[in-house]
Amino acid sequence: MVKVAHVQLSSCCGCLVSLADTYEKLLDVLGAIDLVYSQTLADVKEVPDDVDIILLEGSVCLSDHHALETALACREKAKILVALGACAASGNITRFSRGGQMSKPVHDAFAPLTEVVKCDLAIPGCPPSPESIVAVITAALEGDMDYLEPYAELAKYGSEACGCDLIVKVINKSLCMGCGACAAACPTRAVSMECGRPAIDKEICIKCGACSVQCPRIRFPELIEKIE
Fold first, then answer.
1. Is the dihedral of CA 206, 64, 157, 83 positive or negative?
2. pLDDT by residue (tens digit) across 118-159?
């Protein structure tokens, strides 16, 4: 049976809530896996060795050696390391942390997991939807690499994922077809459609990457660069 672990670093627990919010689908998934570690869902103290899939949510606090050691250990122990949610995939709201917070004044720098260790897959969203979590786990269990390809690309290139990507990679290259998928995906309504094109409000964009991942045209620029 496939061994799966859920690990949490600097996050709000929203991804965990979304994972547990899969209701009966979670039971189906749990019936197909061996959940070997989860700070909330399993009574286990340490992440065991040789885990098939580790879902790691949250960004990495660079001034906390425990967080760095956990990230490195998860990379070593996981055959497939998944950056779960926007904080792990692209930094999300923790990109704006500059230290001095009353609760943890010494914590002054955070980086997405994808910038600290090599991740195999990244699931965007703040939090990611329960359906997307189940779909990725199911595809990983079935070895459906075609379905997982966009998630693998996000893990490799997604550390800057935000509304700016839509401007640079899609709109500036006249690739936008005005479908509105980016605006529909934005959890903070930072993306609005104006005259058939997305407008980005940078003041409320949290850099979750949901908009750029949903865009059906954002994977085209590499092809255009090759043609050019």
1. negative
2. 999 999 888 888 888 888 888 888 889 888 988 888 888 766
pLDDT band per the 50, 70, 90 thresholds, residue 80? very high
Closest to 97 in 3D by CA, of 122, 63, 137, 139: 63
Q: How far is Cα 184 from Cα 150, in angstroms, rounded to an integer?
A: 19
Q: Please choose, from the candidates 180, 211, 181, 210, the residue with its C-alpha nearest in 3D space to the C-alpha of residue 196.
A: 180
What pLDDT was estimated at residue 221? 59
Mean pLDDT for all residues in the chain: 84
What's the confidence (pLDDT) of residue 180?
Answer: 94
Q: What is the 3-state secondary structure (H, E, C) of the chain?
A: CEEEEEEECECCCHHHHHHHCCCHHHHHHHHHEEEEEECCCCCCCCCCCCEEEEEEECEEECCCHHHHHHHHHHHHHEEEEEEECHHHHHCHHHHHCCCCCCCCCCCCCEECHHHHCCCCEEECCCCCCHHHHHHHHHHHHHCCHHHHHHHHHHHHHHHHCCHHHHHHHHHCCCCCCCCCHHHHHCCCCCEEEECCEEEECCCCCCCCCHHHHHCCCCCCHHHHHHHC
**Distance (Å, rounded) from C-alpha 222 to C-alpha 135?**
27
Beta bridge partners of 198: 193
Mean pLDDT value across residues 163-184: 87
